[in-house]
Amino acid sequence: MFNSLSDRLTSTFKNLRTRGRLSEADIDATVREIRRALLDADVAVPVVREFTATVRERALSAEVSGALNPAQQVVKIVNEELVDVLGGATRPLTLAKTPPTVIMLAGLQGAGKTTLAGKLAHALKGQGHTPLLVAADLQRPNAVTQLSVVAERAGVPVFAPHPGNTSDADDPAADAPLIGDPVGVARDGVTYARERQHDVVIVDTAGRLGVDEVLMRQAADIRAAVNPDEVLFVIDAMIGQDAVNTAKAFAEGVDFTGVVLSKLDGDARGGAALSVAKVTGRPIMFASTGEKLTDFEVFHPDRMASRILD
Ligand code: GDP
């Protein structure tokens, strides 16, 4: 991810480094190259426009300081603006004052929600939490099974509906309602977690191939029913320009609190990553970087910016 953007920006700055003073024309030429590099990386047009305007303005009015030459100053400005576009500061997970903390996952089908549920549960368990996964994706017959597999791999229990409840009190599924009512499953899952002293509940919800009203209403209903501390919108970083419209639709539809970028290990151009925080005003909180449980990291805007400009 970002390799091509990174190369383009680096070579732009290399040209600058050979110059002493920068004229307005030099700055304009540089800003033009940055604009082209960002557009080619699929960054959303309004984000590119604002980014380049700010860089230009700041570069023109930058004080000549003793420590940095003009070219270094431009690099510093671009770095700071990249951090800003990526959401500014690292945003940690909000934990409820009174457990359980409820985390709801939303996003399109195939975005990586179920995979993320396992990764997040695994990471939280490693920090001493006692997470419970709740299978409120009843849209695909396989989704509940898939979440159960993920839960087992992460070593955490799952609250899942299944036809023909068992009478085994230790089986979380025994308490779940029959398949068909995702809002009820989500609500009962949280109640179950409270009763069994699970301090974090991760609710997996259904995704569709495209944004649709029924999906959005269902997600909003689940949100209203479980009153989550965090609603994480999982987005496939490979989807390019579509990322912006999808993210906007979910921001309106479920009012998510943070973004998770998945498939950052892919060779996509990175535009989604660079657009989503700015366009929605919500921070990127985590990155998913592969299919393994441990391919997961807290997202640090400053480190990502440095990686791009490395
Ligand atoms: P969901 O429909 O949103 O629950 O998506 P899934 O969690 O089922 O993920 C869809 C596919 O993407 C699966 O094949 C996952 O193994 C794969 N996947 C999920 N996250 C990542 C990631 O970070 N990197 C890669 N390479 N694949 C991922």
Automatic annotation (TrEMBL):
Subcellular location: Cytoplasm
Source domain of life: Bacteria
Reactions performed catalytically: GTP + H2O = GDP + phosphate + H(+)
Residues engaged in binding GTP: 107-114, 204-208, 262-265
GO MF, one example: GTP binding
Assigned EC number: 3.6.5.4
Segments forming domain SRP54-type proteins GTP-binding: 283-296
UniProt keyword terms in alphabetical order: Cytoplasm, GTP-binding, Hydrolase, Nucleotide-binding, Ribonucleoprotein, RNA-binding, Signal recognition particle
GO BP terms, alphabetized: SRP-dependent cotranslational protein targeting to membrane
Chief place of localization: cytoplasm
GO cellular component, one term: signal recognition particle
Record-stated family: Belongs to the GTP-binding SRP family. SRP54 subfamily.
Subunit-structure text: Part of the signal recognition particle protein translocation system, which is composed of SRP and FtsY.
Swiss-Prot/TrEMBL domain comment: Composed of three domains: the N-terminal N domain, which is responsible for interactions with the ribosome, the central G domain, which binds GTP, and the C-terminal M domain, which binds the RNA and the signal sequence of the RNC.
Function: Involved in targeting and insertion of nascent membrane proteins into the cytoplasmic membrane. Binds to the hydrophobic signal sequence of the ribosome-nascent chain (RNC) as it emerges from the ribosomes. The SRP-RNC complex is then targeted to the cytoplasmic membrane where it interacts with the SRP receptor FtsY.
Protein name (Swiss-Prot/TrEMBL): Signal recognition particle protein
Gene: ffh
Full protein: residues contained: 1 to 310 of 546
